[in-house]
Specification:
Elements (H helix, E strand, L loop, with lengths): L4 E10 L2 E11 L4 E5 L6 H7 L8 E9 L7 E2 L5 H7 L4 E4 L3 H4 L6 H12 L5 H14 L5 H4 L9 H13 L5 E5 L7 H18 L2 E6 L2 H5 L4 E6 L2 E7 H6 L4 H8 L19
Parallel strand pairs: 3-8, 3-9, 6-7, 7-8
Antiparallel strand pairs: 1-2, 1-4, 4-5, 9-10
Helix pairs in contact: 4-5, 4-7, 5-7, 7-8
Length: about 280
């Protein structure tokens, strides 16, 4: 069976800056791929290119083949904006890394989740949109969601806000979920809860997921395969077990060595990542 999404020789430029250099990767239905690298390595630029969310100043070449619900692949880089808008949220959804700012602070949670319904089902009644919003919030374990629809984002904790963003992303049961460092702004305990929630929802809905992180340990808890990115290029890829236990590239080894553990010798400095 062909992959759900296939990126072939993708290049992304912002003026004279070459952010992504010939990236090629694929993702099958129901598969979780970890995408790892330091800040500025090109992870998010690659991911944002899939649903067409890069700034208009970006110049893209290559192919991003999407099979989605149809049997024939379409190159997303050649599709009109209207086609991409119809895919976003319905077949390709995204969770952004900062739950504190991703929600509109002056709109109630119920209205924001209901907007996700109306965006792709304009004929949906307000009553039906409200029902679907409550179901979506229940699915991500928001307590008493029917009584919290009129609450605002500041009335929820950081972990709850991230759960709300996950509910909004999954309300239309998309085929692909792009999670752009969804646990970065959360403490370790809440981070573990969000990872378990994502794993549970991924299994329940047979989601394909592109999980972006700078932390190989986090990726190791959720992904089956991993691709390591440096300076706009993929420098290593393989199963999570192979990459975590038998890294081949020096950059991957330094990424692992840069994270302190209980076994780290406190007398020795942590590894550093050389500049470009």
């Amino acid at each position: 069976m062909p992959p759900l999404v296939e990126i072939d020789d993708l290049h992304v430029r912002f003026g004279t800056s070459h952010a992504v250099r010939g990236v090629s990767l694929s993702l099958d239905d129901g598969e979780v791929l970890g995408f790892v690298g330091e800040s500025g390595s090109g992870k998010s630029a690659t991911a944002l290119a899939i649903p067409g969310l890069l700034a208009p100043t970006a110049s893209l070449t290559g192919r991003i083949l999407w099979r989605g619900s149809g049997s024939c692949a379409m190159n997303l880089l050649e599709q009109p904006r209207a086609t991409l808008r119809s895919l976003r949220g319905r077949e390709i959804a995204m969770i952004f890394q900062e739950p504190m700012t991703a929600l509109n602070p002056v709109m109630t949670i119920g209205r924001q989740v209901a907007e996700c319904v109306h965006a792709h089902v304009p004929s949906c009644t307000r009553k039906e949109a409200k029902r679907r919003a409550i179901e979506a919030l229940e699915a991500v374990a928001i307590p008493e969601p029917a009584h919290r629809l009129n609450d605002y984002p500041h009335q929820f904790s950081g972990g709850q806000r991230q759960r709300i963003l996950i509910a909004m992303a999954l309300i239309h049961r998309p085929r692909l979920l792009i999670a752009d460092e969804p646990t970065t702004a959360l403490d370790v305990t809440i981070q573990a809860q969000i990872l378990e929630l994502l794993k549970q929802l991924q299994r329940e809905h047979d989601l394909a997921m592109l999980f972006i992180s700078h932390d190989l340990a986090v990726v190791g808890r959720i992904a089956g395969r991993v691709a390591v990115m440096k300076a706009g290029e993929i420098v290593e890829r393989g199963s999570v077990l192979d990459v975590l236990t038998r890294p081949r590239h020096e950059y991957t080894k330094n990424l692992l060595a840069a994270v302190p553990t209980l076994e780290t010798d406190r007398e020795c400095p942590l590894a550093t990542l050389a500049g470009r």
